């Protein structure tokens, strides 16, 4: 493993998707693939950002799944193919940074269906989904080492019919193939997961059988991503230039302390979220307030696609849980209230437009949470920050963006950025908008350089989505204006 890869793993990998993206680079096989892998390491910031954006920025959780026994319901194959097309286009045009981002996003949509919980839906899964994924994340090194040191490593079989398809159809087929490889383990992983132990200490939720299953799936994820990178490198018409990674190594090393702090913040937040979920389930036998966002989104989208969707498992219910595993009864998930993705108690780093470096500037002046930021005076913050590029208007815009996301459930960071950019700055104003007119304004802004920076390689939201924003804003109980 290269020095830069080791530094990135230690300092900047904060999720399973980050680890998959970096570890896959060591498994590329072709000369062109290795050149592309070096390029991705050089542009590691965009590559790792893309690997996590589907969870943190897009939040399109219906596109993170392939429900195998439900006629392959889910948007992961289509999304993966879209981002493969984006990656090839960026490579052909020699837009290396954008290509790195696109390949990072593609890696997320490919590897998500290799988590069995993304291949079906059931009441039992609703309870264990978030705790189990956190257990997997906190056990990554142990499971990865088990695969790496195995005499018989699993390798994703992209050399089957997937490799013979043209365009981006091969990616679509590979995602379906990934889901079919992981789906047979769906019920067993749920059955043997020890929920109480996993809440107290995430790695303890996984027994040896779970780890054996996950070891094979890790191998599929890492080698499959590597083969995708190989194929993209050999599909592009551009000559991928040799890259010097010495400067990238220095940059990554300089940023290491801040990244370690951020990793600890993420870990603490996830631990609290899992504990809250478990406590609600133990107390009430249901999950409503702390139902994971991905579960809400997937069930909402499935309900929209079919007249009636049962919350029972798509495949036969698991057998009686083994000793030590949590007994999970039916979970009531009807009429789930929509909850905004951002709250005033969240760390400021989670707010729109504010990354880790900017958040540290605010920490230095005593502002740590979203609520503290929203209640602070822009005039006073400008003086205390003493930074030329953060002016009063920028702070006002950021406050508008953050407040929108705390009040309107269907909004996330970049969507609030689009709204504020076209002059829609609060939930009351959004509630009064005409969907067609607002869609036209956003579409026009999306064509500008500022709009393209916000959207990156994604499309402007369609009118149906914007209409949903307006509906949610209309039901917002509190709509204060700064």
UniProtKB/TrEMBL annotation:
Stretches assigned to the Phospholipase C/D domain: 16-118
Organism: Stieleria varia
Pfam families: DUF4332, Zn_dep_PLPC
Entries under CDD domains matching the protein: ZnPC_S1P1 (cd10981)
InterPro entries: DUF4332, PLipase_C/P1_nuclease_dom_sf, PLPC/GPLD1
Coiled coil: none
Gene3D superfamilies (UniProt xref): 5' to 3' exonuclease, C-terminal subdomain, P1 Nuclease
All copies of domain DUF4332, residue ranges: 352-474
This protein's name: Pathogenicity locus
Any one GO MF annotation of this record: hydrolase activity, acting on ester bonds
Extent of Polar residues compositional bias: 308-323
Region annotation (Disordered) ranges: 297-330
